[in-house]
Amino acid sequence: MSVETIATHPFKDQKPGTSGLRKKVKVFEQPHYLENFVQCVFDTQRELEDAPLVVGGDGRYYNREAIQKILRIAAANGCTRVLLGQGGIFSTPAVSHMIRKHNARGGLILSASHNPGGPDEDFGIKFNTPNGGPAPEKVTEAIYTASLHINRYHTLNTPDIDLNKTGTIFVGDMQVDIVDPVNDYADLMEDLFDFDKIRALFKSGFRMRFDAMHAVTGPYAREIIENRLGAPQGTVVNGIPLEDFGHGHPDPNLVYAKELADYLFGPDAPDFGAASDGDGDRNMVLGRHFFVTPSDSLAVILANATLAPGYRAHLSGVARSMPTSQAADRVAAKLGLSCYETPTGWKFFGNLLDANKITLCGEESFGTGSNHVREKDGLWAVLFWMNILAERRQSVAEIVREHWRTYGRNYYTRHDYEAVDSTAANSLVDTLRAATATLPGQQLGSYTVDYADDFRYIDPIDDSVSEKQGIRIGFKDGSRIVYRLSGTGTEGATLRVYIEAYEPDPAKHDLDTQQALAALINIANSFAGIRERTGRNEPTVIT
Ligand code: VG1
Ligand code: CO
């Protein structure tokens, strides 16, 4: 089979954001666009020749086309073996596990995560390194730099392969093993959690609903929750991955997973509800008439971790992204564990996990995970909760309220302003940055500023420095306001405002979150001049 070398030209917009390269499908469909990015991965990651390379995606529109192109480019670049999910399917955490389990040299994940899919929506590609995790900044920078100079890529002139049948086939000289995308991952979950206990919980009449949101976790959830754990058929809903996610927005929060939320807050609510996003790395958990914030979820999992067999022996430490609430910090302090604060994005947990500095980590954006893989893991978090519920035999609400009584409650909300004018958003953040120097000691409303900065992170393992990770304003009473711009949006800029307040008094643990935080929300809005600068009177999404 002869290698074709195709002349190409650089695209100036291939800079990976918080989580890989994410663009409109129409951008990816431009001639050579995807090809360039993939070739730049091979040009900069020479060890990929030794294979295997793990490839799969969340099943969204353009997944299959992208995989056919990737296989030809991989083969033409001398890659000897690919592990491909049947139907082109792999969840993000499953890819991470496959890389680790099969000693692969990396993985390519096709997904724009929770962003909508379809011809006019979003597509994305992420490169994961041999530890199973998202490429760190030095790798994404190298790929980006290569993309500014590329003038050719290598491919083969071969027909498309059938992605649907498991087994081994060849693209040129490259072996492609098409495998069931679920089995290895389901086995890993069975190693970590007490499946007998959870089976007994279902036998006792426990009812749950898992909403796969027409995205990638459907087949995983059916195998694990219905087949292996014995939940009744129909426990998993929207379980078939669709190219456009049923016209939905596969983002598991109270806004986009409204159907599930309405059910859990309705008259016939089951004991437990959960959902996952497009590529399976996010999770939302709900109890009957009760929503668990992702920040609280991390704290509760940490406090109860030793109830799960995989975490019984040892917990090293915990990390959370900077804007995530400080609820986990309080648990860590009590357990005598170190707690790290990292910039937004899972790639920053990788070094801490590899060095065994942390066992658990999480983000406020519905991401929770551990050292079992190097990505956040939606189903894992759901199973962790099920294991805790099976052991404690209390309701979700009882468990969380008890947690608040022990540690206090961190009220928390995030306000997103989507698709705002990029120039306006950048100047808003620039103005805030300039203001931070003089803020400490000042009064904002009834709050006294303790510290203010643009978060700068020095990786404790390799000393790499990440600048400008978000404006933080911390107040004397422990409450915080954080502003940052999203790195995953595909239209204009998205401004995220994160607001947190600590409440030790159990008599005040039942307030509505927006009301409990109203004074701080006002300060956050007026101090940044959000209305004047963005022309928006209210956030697009509140979580
Ligand atoms: C968002 C979240 C961040 C998360 C990232 C990827 O990034 O805030 O916490 O790691 O999405 O999640 P940003 O830059 O838009 O705020 V996913 O599920 O896309 O892999
Ligand atoms: Co995701």
Task: Write a concise synopsis of the structure shown.
This protein folds into three domains: 3-181, Alpha-D-Glucose-1,6-Bisphosphate, subunit A, domain 3 (Alpha-D-Glucose-1,6-Bisphosphate, Chain A, domain 3, 3-Layer(aba) Sandwich); 185-407, Alpha-D-Glucose-1,6-Bisphosphate, subunit A, domain 3 (Alpha-D-Glucose-1,6-Bisphosphate, Chain A, domain 3, 3-Layer(aba) Sandwich); 409-542, 2-Layer Sandwich (TATA-Binding Protein), CATH 3.30.310.50. 53% of the residues are buried. The chain is 32% helix and 25% strand.
Helix-strand layout with pairing:
Layout lengths: L2 E5 L13 E4 H4 L4 H12 L8 E5 L5 H14 L4 E9 L2 H10 L4 E5 L11 E7 L8 H11 L4 E5 L10 E5 L2 E6 L3 H10 L2 H9 L4 E4 L5 H12 L7 E2 L20 H7 L7 E5 L6 E5 L2 E3 L1 H11 L12 E5 L5 H9 L2 E5 L7 H5 L5 E4 L3 E4 L7 H15 L3 H12 L1 E12 L1 H15 L6 E2 L2 E8 L2 E2 L6 E2 L4 E5 L4 E6 L7 E11 L9 H4 L1 H11 L1 H5 L6 E2 L1
The largest sheet has its strands arranged as: 2-6-5-3-4-9-8
Low-confidence stretches: none
Shape: globular
CATH architecture descriptor name of the largest domain: 3-Layer(aba) Sandwich
Helix content: 25-40%
Structural class: alpha/beta
Contiguous helical run count: 18
What is the CATH C-level name of the largest domain?
Answer: Alpha Beta
Query: Which ligands are bound?
Result: alpha-D-glucose-1-phosphate-6-vanadate, cobalt (II) ion
Structural overview:
The protein is built from 18 helices and 27 strands. A hairpin with a 2-residue loop joins strand 13 and strand 14 (290-292). Helix 2 packs across helix 5, helix 7 crosses helix 13 and helix 10 (294-304) runs parallel beside helix 11 (327-335). It folds into three domains: 3-181, Alpha-D-Glucose-1,6-Bisphosphate, Chain A, domain 3, CATH 3.40.120.10; 185-407, Alpha-D-Glucose-1,6-Bisphosphate, Chain A, domain 3; 409-542, 2-Layer Sandwich (TATA-Binding Protein), CATH 3.30.310.50. With 543 residues, the chain is an alpha/beta fold. The mean pLDDT is 95. Residues 113-114, 277-279, 281-282 line the site of cobalt (II) ion.
